[in-house]
Write a structure and sequence with these properties.
By secondary structure, this protein is α+β, with helices and mostly antiparallel strands. It has one domain: Winged helix-like DNA-binding domain superfamily/Winged helix DNA-binding domain (Arc Repressor Mutant, subunit A), CATH 1.10.10. It has four helices and three strands; from the N terminus they run H-E-H-H-E-E-H. Strands 1-3-2 form a three-stranded antiparallel β-sheet. A hairpin with a 6-residue loop joins strand 2 and strand 3. The chain starts with a helix and ends with a helix. This is ArsR family transcriptional regulator. InterPro entries: WH-like_DNA-bd_sf (IPR036388), WH_DNA-bd_sf (IPR036390).
Length: 84
């Protein structure tokens, strides 16, 4: 997993549903890079993208209906505990 995807997942777990522009700022990545990574995660069923008004008014959320997401969540929490 690349570091941008890791930042996205950690931020979504910490923040919950979040606007894609705010997510880009919190992850300190350009919007186009974030969009590419979110598209990758969405294709794999890890996140969901809810369209809003306008091109950038999209809300990103973790897809908790995917069993792999629960494993990822547990892994991220364990790694965060180790690193803190």
């Amino acid at each position: 997993m690349n570091s941008t995807r890791w930042k996205i997942l950690v931020t979504l777990l910490e923040e919950g549903d979040i606007n894609i522009t705010k997510l880009a700022k919190k992850c300190s990545v350009r919007y186009d890079v974030l969009k590419h990574e979110v598209d990758f995660l969405e294709r794999r069923g890890i996140v969901e993208v809810i369209s809003g008004d306008g091109v950038r008014a999209k809300i990103i959320r973790i897809n908790y209906s995917n069993p792999k997401v629960i494993l990822l969540k547990d892994l991220i929490e364990e790694v965060k505990d180790i690193l803190e």
